[in-house]
Amino acid sequence: EREDGAHVSDNCSAARPCPHNDWDDVRTRKGLKVLRCRVCQGRWKLPSGAVYRCMAFLHDNCFEGERCLYLHVRRTKSTIYERYELFGDRVLEGVADDIQAEARSRLMARATCCSSDSDDDGPPELLDEEVM
Description:
- It contains three helices and three strands; from the N terminus they run βββααα.
- The chain is an alpha+beta fold.
């Protein structure tokens, strides 16, 4: 139960949904914090007051990783475009059509600009200095 007397949703859990410890803070609403795992995209709802962030991680010096007892929550969450590149269409479920199109377009543009049509036989030959 929250301080204002409202009940916290039953679909929150104190147990991590996966063994990873690399989280994006997706939202806070009605006394619940929603975190998304950066490794597997698992979602975790927990009471807002139960998010014990690792202070060492916030200062880039926690060496415990997944074994850390505190949560490794990133300061900035990964974008839909970054997640689409890593995880594909499943992250676009429920996303507006224009955002889906933009994500696909960005991925195609990146694939096009990063691919090379030239033969990749090593560095180009150097010209002789006689030409000068």
